[in-house]
Amino acid sequence: MYLVLIAMLALNVSREILKSFYLFELSFNNANKNADVRNLETMNAFQAKMDNERTRQKTEQWYKLAKEARKISFDFNRYVENVKKDIIKNGGGRTEAEPNQKGLTELNLPDDMEKHAHYFDEQGLGNGVLLKNKINETRTKLLALLKSTRSGPMVMASIDKSTPLRAEDPKTNDLEQKTWESMYLVSAPLAGVVTLLSKTQNDCKSLEADVLSVLSDNINTNLTHTDQKVLIIPESKYVMSGTNFKARIALAAFDKSTPQRIIVNGNAIPVEDGLGMYSFAASGIGNHKVEAKIETVDPLTGNTIFIDAEPIEWNSFQPSAAISADAMNVLFIGLENPMSISVPGVTPENTIVTASAGVTLVKTSSGKFIAKAAIGTRSAIITVSARMEDGQIKKMGESSYKVRRVPTPKLKVGNLVAGTYPKVKIQSQTTVNAVLEDFYFNNISYTIIKYRVILDSKREGAIIHDVEGNSAAIIKSLAAKAKSGESIYLESIVVSGPGGNFYLDPITIKVQ
Prior knowledge:
Layout: H1 2-51, H2 53-90, H3 115-120, H4 127-144, H5 152-162, H6 180-186, H7 190-217, E1 229-234, E2 238-240, E3 244-252, E4 261-264, E5 267-269, E6 271-272, E7 275-281, E8 286-290, E9 292-297, E10 304-308, E11 312-317, E12 322-325, E13 330-332, E14 337-342, E15 351-355, E16 359-365, E17 368-373, E18 379-387, E19 393-404, E20 410-413, E21 419-421, H8 423-427, E22 432-435, E23 447-457, E24 461-468, H9 473-481, E25 487-497, E26 500-504, E27 507-511
Parallel strand pairs: 2-11, 13-19, 21-27
Antiparallel strand pairs: 1-3, 3-7, 4-5, 4-9, 6-7, 8-11, 9-10, 12-14, 14-17, 15-18, 16-17, 18-19, 20-22, 23-24, 23-25, 25-26, 25-27
Helix pairs in contact: 1-2, 1-7, 2-4, 2-7, 4-6, 4-7
C-alpha cells in the first residue's frame, strides 16, 4: 500500500515537472543539432580558405587548432552520450513510439532515483566524479587552444567566465559539504539527470562555437568588416519568468576600433570599454529573439559601418516547484510526515520552505523535511520560494494538504478482538493492546494508560476492577471464575498515542 501511494503521489504532483524535463531535453537536443550545423559551416569556411592558395598559409595555423577543437568536442559529446545510454538502459529505457510518432520518446521511469544514483555515487560505480572531471578537463582543453590568438589570455578569461560548461562543487554553509555529483546526479530523478547531460552537451557545443569563432577571426591580421564578428554572450538562454535575461554584446577580435554604438532590437544600449550590457525583463512562457549590430570603422576605407550579429533565441519559463509528501498527500496530526521539496534549477541552499499556521517543518537533509501538524489544524499550505542571484526572494509554488487525525486503533486482549472464545484461550493472553492495522505509516505505537474490566457473573453479580497499565492478569483471573456464557467487559479505556490521550470504545469477551 505504501509503495502504491508513492506512485500515485508522483503521478498527481510530479507529472508536470517530469514532463517539463522531457520538453527541455527535446529543446536541448534540437539546440545541439543547430549548433552542429553552425560549427560545420565554420569548418567549411576554414576549408575554403585552405583550398585557396592565397589564403592557405595564414589559415593553416588556426585550421589545425580548429580541427583539434572539433575532436575535443566530439570526444566529449560521445562520452556523455554513452553515459546517457547507460543510465537510460539501466533505468528502464524509453517508452515505445506510438504510430506516426517521430523523435525521442519519454522515459519509462522518469522519476526513478536509484539505479543511476548507484551508477554515479562514489559508494557505487563512481562515474559521477569521472563525469565532473571530464567536463572541467574539456573546458580547459578547448580554452587552451586560444592561447596563441590575439589577446589570447584576455579572450580565454572572458570566454571561461561566460561558458556554463563547468562542474563545480556548490558553496554551502552546511556542515556536510555537498559535491556537484551528489547534488545534481545522485539526488536528482532520472529525467532531470538525462536533461542535465543533454544541456552539458549543448554547453560543450556552444563553447566549441566560441573557440572556432575566435580562431576564424585570427586568420586576418588586418580585419575587414566581413571578417569581424559581433558576439552576443548570454548568461543563460533559459530564464525564469519574473527575472531578467542578461547578455554581453561585443565586437570580437577588434583592435584599435572601438564600437561607438550598439543597437539591440532597434534600441541603443550603454557601452563601456567596447562592451554593451543588455538586460530585458522576462515574462510568460516562450521564445524570445535578440538582434544586435555594432557601429565601427572599416579598417580599409575608414568609413563608418554596422556589423550585424547572428540573432540568438532564448527561452523564458514560469516558476515551478516540486512538493511531495513521501508517505501520501495528507498530513496526520501527531506523526512525523516526511516530505521531499525541491525547485528545478535552484540549489537546496537557495530553496526556502514555509508552512501555514498549525504546521511546523524541520529540515532533515538536502531537500528532505519532516512536517508536524498541531491538534485542531484542518488544512495546510506548503510554500516554496527561491533566493535569486541578485538576492531577491521569489515565490516558486505552493501546495495544499488536508490535515487529519490518525484513525482510532482497535483494542485487543492479547491477540483477541471482541468475540466468543474458550476459557483457556482467554487465560493464555498476557497484555491488553491498542493496535492500528492497515495504516500507511508503520511502527505507530500506543500505550494503554488504564481501563476498567467487569465480569457479569450470574452468581456474584458484576465484579469490577480498575487496572493501571496494560496487564491482562485481572482478565485472566476473572476468566477463571467465569462460567460458560458469561461475558467480560472492557470499558473506560484510556490510550496514549499520536495526538495525545483518548478513549477507546468498549469491547466484550464472552466465555464459550
